[in-house]
Write the structure tokens for this entry.
Amino acid sequence: MSSEEAAPQADNPVLIVMPGAEARQRTSRLFKRAGFGTATAGTGEEALTAAGVRRPSLVLLELELEDMTGYEACYELRGRLGEDLPVILLSSERTTSADRVAGLMIGADDYLTVPFDPDELLVRARRLLARVSGRSTPPDTPLTARETQVLQLLADGQSQDAIAGELFISAKTVGTHIQRILTKLGVHSRTEAVALAYREALVTRDPSGAP
């Protein structure tokens, strides 16, 4: 197994799962400079073994692995370690809205395309870790019928302009609804809102919107 010793101050390392050694090392250095301990793995099996030996605080999981897909590895990690383990999927090839939705449906908390901005990755990781340690459930504020419609269309992978056309409202109004949705759900991005919506069954998994 390819792994790095976690920093002494970290009880639970960030597990970085990438097939490329250079990418693993570069990402590991990024998190270590930010004060995190890290462990690394190059395959899905190595990731499962590492997570079993020492529970990670967060997993960065690239989809293009040699022995299994990142979707499969995410599913296995969820089954073994539970739903409270933060998982960020990374991909250089699967970059469409459908790919992101598939990753969120399988259990990931976030999804980034490669190459990614290092600062953005750290911000997303910190937010996930803060959520796990400080808040386990979304605010108990109900969404309106229109907000639920907008959230469903976001979950279906539609853009702001497409949602406006679907609901016969302006793109600006859609933007206002989205901001209200983020505030009510206590999240910071559309991706996080969709992930939470699937976990809490706020939207249907059927793209047609049927029950």
In short: The domain at 14-134 is CATH 3.40.50.2300 (Rossmann fold).
